[in-house]
Structures are given as structure tokens and as C-alpha cells.
Amino acid sequence: MKRNSRAFLACAYWAFVVYLFVPLMLMVMMGFKDSKFIGFPIRSWTLEWYLGVFRDTEVLSVFGYSLLIAILSTVLSLAIGTWIAAFLNSYRTFPGRMLVFGLTLLPAVVPGIISAISLRIYARVLGIEPGLWAIVWSHAVHNVPFVVLVVIARLSTLPPSQTEAARDLGADPLIAFIRVTVPYLRPALIGAGIFCLLLSFDDFVRSFFLGGYDPTLPVLIFTRLHSGMSPEINAIATVALVLTAIVGIWAERSMRRMRKEQNA
Amino acid sequence: MSGHLLQLDGLRKTFGRTVAVDHLDMMIEAGEFVTFLGPSGCGKTTTLRMLGGFETPDEGRILLNGEDVTHLPPERRNVNMVFQDYALFPHLTVRRNIAFGLELRRMAAGDIDARVRELAEFLELGSLLERFPDQLSGGQRQRVALARALAPDPALLLLDEPLAALDAKLRGQVQQELKSIQRRTGKTFFFVTHDQDEAMTMSDRIVVMNAGRVEQDGTPEELYDRPASRFVAGFIGETNLIEGRLKSVEGDRAVFDWDGLTLVARPGHKLHTPGEMVSASLRPEHVEIRTTDTDTDGSPDENRFEGRLVDPVFKGSRTVARVELAPDRQLLVHIDRRSILPVDGTPVRVTFSSRHLSLI
């Protein structure tokens, strides 16, 4: 009986893996097809589509643009998120604390399309031109809640004596924060930062609504889809997939290593 | 300008409805090793934190070298603290931990280096300078915390139960070390603990606190021999607390009645009038025990009774037992190995001088 249930679990697990990865595998495979049309059967293979990605100056510049947006919005999210987390952590008896906390988390749960439309309208009211800064701003609004959650979890484990010791030795509150609290938060900041980078790089809705003439990578892929599916798109998507997967796996591993060091 | 290093004037601190410290007045002189001793919640840690600048008193003033520091933040006081959990910075090496306070004082790199080396040598940390705190043992961490707090040359060093995290064996050794460090540096140590043994071992002066108030302030000997209150007598060492009705007081002879037994005691810190109920403290080691057949008529001790030895417990150098003088009237005694053979039920004669029985 026990043996059967274990076999069943194994089957279910592998079925799930197939369910998750087959679409991705198909996408990667089609990028190698030596034909303009996506679909089986594949009669001959080519690297041409992949090489094309690296020769396509538009793809390369859009990739750079997306990366720039990701980095800027991440820096902004970390700064604002850490500040809110520090505020919520130090004023634990502040009566509106739960309200502030709830409002902070709200952007993470509002449906993307609604937040994109409302940001678009708000940007117009504020006079922010659609384009780089509008996208950076909208990504930061979306990412701040994740930073707050990760940073506040770490901050709540900081013994009060750490900052007190810094103050005792002559640091004013700001220097104590920079020299003691921030190093303590480092693993949380790295983790939250990578998560923000990936979220921003991947975002379509906000970039679409708040973008100007220059598309981000997901927007570019979307517009090229309009002119018909071709293995070229598979190649672009695969390159993006591999890069984000590498960043994600690297982040996961270094977080685990850091945690191990801390427990040691 | 007063001549005292530290002066506390009517210090009071409340948390909600709890009074943590209640009108504390005190002078502390330079070079003293002062210990605040008391059970948890007695106000000793709150006092320490007010001196460090981590709590603001509701009332009263703190004068350090004659300067009012009551409302100065911690970073602007010439006072450093050794925290209970040591609070070493985990991301910095031992060297950088010790240098932390010096870097913030904008000291030249060469001077910082020299000072760190001096302290490392003094506290035997030389070989550990490049390690991180999580690579140190408990005792080593404690020494690093001490070095870090001493580095900026504070006028007053605060120590918040720094030995509580160490195991019992190491604690005794560190007590000696700490006392010797204090003597050699000549620094004023303000030490807080709930461990009376620790306080007795290291301090020049002990302040016993209870429920926000000072119960007694004196040398370890004074506290032990002449406790000012029942609380102090019970908190410091083992003692027999004897209660009875005072019959007469003449000079240094106070006679009182302990349920039919007449005892001669020494008057204490407070004035008592005959007829009043009084307590007296008698340390177990001050009770002399002899067998009943010994002739003790020549002994100068005023208090002499006969009883029966019960419940002897062997403790190595001595035996702890009780002597039953009458039903429900027992004395805790220490028996020297060379005096009598401690057998349960042995009839004994106990004597003790009035000098050792002090009224509270």
C-alpha cells in the first residue's frame, strides 16, 4: 500500500514536471527549426535564428533598455522599501501602523491591468511623459511591497542591542543605520533586489501602458508577434529565458549559502 | 563642580504604571567597582540604561563629572557599555569591532591601529584580530566586547550582566579577570547583576535594589555582616532570619525573645523600641557547635542553647545541617570537619556571639 502510494506520488510529480516544462522545451526547440513556420514536423535544424538575435540591433538595444529600466526601478524600490520597513519596524506602537502596512502591500495585489491604467492616468495628472521614467516609476510602485516584506522580516530579527551598541560607540542614528543595520540587511536587500530585477524585466502590462515610443523586451516580442509567429521570436524568448533563469538560480544558491553561513 | 565622577539626583523612571526606578540618589567616585544587585525587575537595568542614554528619566538629573548629561543621546556621552549579548557587529572582524568607536571619533588610522594593538595585548586578543565574532568562543566574545567598550577611553564603563551567557566554570575565572582589569585600568565600572556571588567577588561597593528602591548601599562586608533589611539578609548569602519581640536595648546589647528563648543581639541600622517585633540575621558559619559534654562556661558568647542535630548534608569542606532548639525553632549551621562528627540526632550545644546576631 505504502509502496503504491509512493509510486503514485512519483508519477504525479513527473507528470507535473512535463506539464511545466514541455511548453518551454517546445519553444526552445522551435528556435532551432530551419523553416519560417512554427510547428511539426522539423525536417532540418539551424542556428541561424539564434545568431540572428545577436545581430539584430533593435533586439540588442531593447534588451539594454529593459535592463536599464530594471536596474533603475530596483534601486528605487530598495530605497523606498527599506525606508518604509525601517519606519514600520521602529514605530511598533504607532496607531496607524497596520493601515500603513496594508496600504504598502496593496500595489502587490491590485490586478496588473488596473494598476497600469490608474498609473497611466496618474502619470498624466502629474505630467510625467510616457517613457523611461514613467515605466521605472510604475515598476517601483509594483515592487516596493516585496522589498518591504523581505526587509521587515529580516529587520525584526535584528537585536536592538546592535544599533544601541553603535550609538553607544558614538554613531548618530543615521550612521548607526548605515554602518550596522544595512550590513545586517544585506542578504535581504540582495534577495529582494534580484526579485525586483526579474519582476521588472518580465513586466508587460505596465511597460505597455506607460511606455513611449521605445518598447521594452516583452513589448517588442508582443509587437513582433503581430507580424506573425516565426522561430526568430522563439530565439529571442529563449535567450531572455536563459538569462533570467541563470540570475534566478544564482540568486537562490547564494541566498542559501548565506543562510548556511549565518546558521554556522 | 562637584568632586564626584557620577551623581544621580532623584532619578525616577516609570513604564506605564510600573515604577522601575524610584527617586534614586547616589554618588559614585572615580575608580570604584560598583555593582547594582537585585532580582529581575528591580530597576537595576533601567538605571544602567539611563546612564547609557537609552532611557530618559521622568524626573531627576544625571551629572557626569559635574556636567548634566540627563538628556544627551548615547553618542554624546563619555560612557560605554558592555551589552548582555555583547552586541558584537557580525559583519566586522574583531579588529574593526574594537576600532568602531575610534573610527567614529575621526582618530588617525595610525593611532587607531596602536590603540587596538594595545587593547588586544592587554586582553589577550592578539591572535584573534582578523576573526569574525561567530568564530569566537563565549569568553573571547566577552573580552572583545570589553575591548570595544574600553577603546574610546570612557569615564564610566557600564556592564549589563556580561557573564550571564558564560558557563558556570568559565564565569568564576572571568570574574577574577574582570576585577583585575578594573584594577589595572583604574576605570570606574558600573556592573549590573542578579547574581550575589558575582557581586561579592568583584565589587568594591554593592547597591542592593528591590522594587525600584535602594535597599542597602555598602561594601560586600557591610552587606554580609550588617544587612539593613530582611531582603538584603535573605538575598546575600545564606542566613537564619530570627523574629521576636524586643525586650530591652542598652548600648550595644539588644535583648529579644524568640518564642521563649532569650537572645542577645547587636542593634542594627534602625532604632527599635522595646515591645516591638524585630528580626535578626545570623549567618550559619557564626554558630559554634560543640557536643553537650564539653565545658563552655568560659566562653564569652552570650547566646548558648542546647538542641539536636538534624538533616546533616555533606558538602565537602563543611557539612550543612540544622539544629533543632525547640519544636519549630531551627538554626541553619555549618559544621567544620574538625569540630564534631555530624550524625543525625546528636545532642549538641550551640553558642554564638551577640556581635554576629544583628537586628535588622
Q: What oligomeric arrangement do these chains adopt?
A: heterodimer
Distance between the termini of chain B: 37 Å
Tell me the overall shape of chain B: elongated
Q: Under the CATH scheme, which class of chain A?
A: Mainly Alpha
What is the share of helical residues of chain A? Answer: over 70%
Mean pLDDT of chain A: 87
Average predicted local confidence, pLDDT of chain B: 88
Notes on the structure:
In chain A, 80% of the residues lie in helices and 0% in strands. With 264 residues, chain A is mainly α. Chain A has one domain (47-263): MetI-like fold (Orthogonal Bundle). The longest helix of chain A has 34 residues, at 57-90. Chain B is 23% helix and 36% strand. Chain B is built from 8 helices and 20 strands. In chain B, strand 17 and strand 18 form a beta hairpin. Classes of the chains: A mainly alpha (264), B alpha+beta (360). Chain A binds chain B through residues 159, 161-162, 164-172, 175, 179-180, 183-184, 186, 264, and chain B through 52-54, 73-75, 79-81, 83-85, 87-91, 100-101, 104-105, 134, 148-149, 152.
